């Protein structure tokens, strides 16, 4: 029996340094395959030694998973011939309801969602995409803002709030967005949200019917795909070129178009004016909403950021999403939306019911942090730091990796995209790199369907200057043995 598909299924699902032992992960994944009948009763499993070798696991890791599955009655070993899925699993009636319960509890959508929501190891360090420089955040000033607000907090802030965010913060943001992105809005159009991801999830539910089409970038931000799936939308991947999302005129009309025009995630393409106008015209023709995700627009190194797509929108179909995750820190869980006026009230009501509004105390502290100039200073400082780190990464890569892995991504953001030869096994490289505490993100993760190119998303913002070169050297070593 050909076991290649089992290996391809398992490889991306086994996460090193995930906190859960690999034998436990392997046990869970195989159990799921058996429960879902993808491994039918009577079918043979790969030999433990071969599986360990292909997946680069210890043999004991595989044996321990097989033993556990055998102890629970999923597998049996037949002397001299190998390990098989128990025959009992060929017959649905024999299947004990208790054993089957977790698989049955999930809806089909739930299963798709869980599948699409693969979590990277929550590690800090070399190449983690989206990790800001956390050590150099002005912790003292932030603490002072929090303390002062805590001392004077009105009792109402300890209760539920339904205002779409603290008015003070909404006012500060409206001004900031107008100055830095030419966003046109009244403070009333701003809604403070508990993270951009929550906003994408709620927008998909609010704006589309289950079964409607959402265009998402491919490669693109997986969180957008998950948000659309959660609302029962059908995702249509739109290829990305050097201008970002390239609309496919033959694709079915979308209800929602999700795009990152300022700095396409993860390729780094910047959408020029002509493409922006084309996208707006297309949205008008199809009567679609555009969700503009401006997740790291502050970090533009050679020029001021382009004006937001929202600023070109004449008929109120662009929803602008911004986040504090990159400019402050992700653990803050604070982001904001600029909504067309007619969406503000429904959005606020649904948010209050479905997600809640987050902490007003924290929002007040952020308003002060902006007002007192700490925010602008920090962003300026990080912009210089990240620009320097990007250059360091580019230089080290040119020296050690050169032609094999060209970097792409423009002069912006917190990551670069490293291109690998087509068909390169990024998952295997990721696993090997994790052994050396290098956290690589395969580009393959960012595709809806079969990836049409290979690469790695390399975060550089959170790596100390002196650690960048050695990290690139280690990556070069790993690549060298694989590209010979
Ligand atoms: C493109 C993009 N959009 C949105 C987000 C999520 O932002 P938040 O942390 O506010 O949910 C991320 C986080 O990595 C991102 O990369």
Walk me through what this model shows.
By secondary structure, this protein is α/β, with parallel strands linked by helices. It has three domains: 4-105, Orthogonal Bundle (Arc Repressor Mutant, subunit A), CATH 1.10.10; 139-375, 3-Layer(aba) Sandwich (Aspartate Aminotransferase, domain 2); 386-483, Aspartate Aminotransferase, domain 1, CATH 3.90.1150.10. Helix content is 42%, strand content 13%. The protein contains 16 helices and 14 strands. It has helices at 4-10, 22-35, 48-55, 59-71, 97-105, 108-116, 139-151, 167-181, 196-207, 222-230, 273-286, 341-354, 360-371, 374-400, 426-435, 465-483, and strands spanning 75-78, 82-85, 190-193, 213-218, 234-241, 244-245, 256-259, 289-294, 318-323, 335-338, 407-408, 415-420, 441-442, 454-459. Strand 1 (75-78) and strand 2 (82-85) form a beta hairpin. The longest helix has 27 residues, at 374-400. It binds pyridoxal-5'-phosphate. Pyridoxal-5'-phosphate (PLP) is lined by residues 130, 195-197, 221, 223, 260, 265, 293, 295, 323, 325, 330, 335.
CATH architecture tag of the largest domain: 3-Layer(aba) Sandwich
Q: What is the CATH fold-level name of the largest domain?
A: Aspartate Aminotransferase, domain 2
- Average pLDDT works out at 91
Number of strands: 14
Q: Count the helices. How many?
A: 16
Q: What is the helical fraction, as a range of percent?
A: 40-55%
């Amino acid at each position: 029996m050909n076991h290649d598909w089992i290996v391809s299924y398992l490889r991306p699902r086994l996460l090193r340094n995930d906190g859960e032992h690999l034998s436990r992960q392997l046990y869970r994944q195989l159990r799921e395959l058996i429960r879902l009948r993808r491994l039918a009763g009577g079918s043979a499993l790969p030999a433990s030694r071969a599986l360990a070798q292909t997946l680069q696991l210890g043999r004991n890791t595989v044996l321990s998973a097989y033993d556990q599955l055998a102890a629970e009655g999923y597998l049996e070993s037949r002397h001299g011939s190998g390990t098989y899925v128990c025959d009992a699993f060929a017959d649905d009636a024999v299947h004990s309801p208790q054993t089957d319960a977790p698989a049955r509890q999930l809806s089909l959508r739930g299963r798709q969602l869980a599948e699409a929501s693969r979590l990277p190891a929550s590690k800090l360090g070399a190449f983690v995409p989206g990790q800001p420089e956390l050590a150099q955040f002005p912790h003292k000033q932030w603490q002072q803002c929090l303390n002062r607000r805590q001392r004077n907090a009105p009792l109402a802030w300890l209760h539920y709030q339904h205002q779409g965010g603290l008015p003070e913060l909404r006012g500060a943001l409206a001004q900031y967005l107008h100055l830095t992105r030419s966003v046109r809005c009244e403070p009333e159009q701003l809604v403070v949200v508990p993270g951009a991801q929550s906003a994408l999830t709620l927008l998909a539910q609010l704006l589309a019917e289950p079964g409607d089409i959402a265009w998402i970038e491919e490669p693109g931000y997986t969180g957008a795909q998950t948000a659309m799936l959660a609302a029962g939308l059908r995702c249509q991947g739109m290829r990305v070129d050097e201008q970002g999302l390239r609309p496919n005129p033959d694709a079915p009309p979308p209800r929602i178009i999700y795009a990152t025009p300022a700095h396409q995630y993860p390729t780094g393409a910047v959408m020029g004016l002509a493409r922006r106008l084309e996208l707006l015209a297309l949205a008008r023709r199809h009567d679609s909403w555009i969700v503009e995700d401006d997740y790291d627009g502050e970090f533009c190194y050679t020029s001021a950021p382009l004006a937001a797509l929202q600023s070109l929108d004449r008929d109120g179909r662009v929803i602008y999403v911004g986040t504090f995750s990159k400019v402050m820190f992700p653990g803050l869980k604070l982001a904001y939306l600029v909504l067309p006026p007619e969406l503000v009230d429904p959005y606020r009501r649904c948010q209050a019911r479905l997600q809640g509004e987050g902490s007003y105390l924290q929002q007040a502290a952020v308003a002060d942090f902006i007002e007192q100039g700490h925010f602008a200073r920090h962003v300026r400082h990080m912009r210089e730091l990240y620009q320097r780190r990007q250059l360091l990464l580019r230089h080290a890569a040119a020296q050690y990796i050169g032609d094999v892995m060209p970097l792409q991504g423009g002069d912006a953001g917190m990551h670069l995209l490293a291109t690998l030869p087509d068909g390169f096994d990024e998952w295997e490289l990721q696993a090997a790199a994790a052994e050396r505490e290098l956290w690589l993100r395969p580009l393959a993760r960012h595709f809806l369907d079969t990836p049409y190119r290979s690469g790695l998303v390399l975060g550089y913002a959170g790596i100390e200057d002196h650690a960048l070169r050695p990290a690139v050297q280690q990556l070069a070593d790993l690549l060298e043995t694989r590209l010979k």
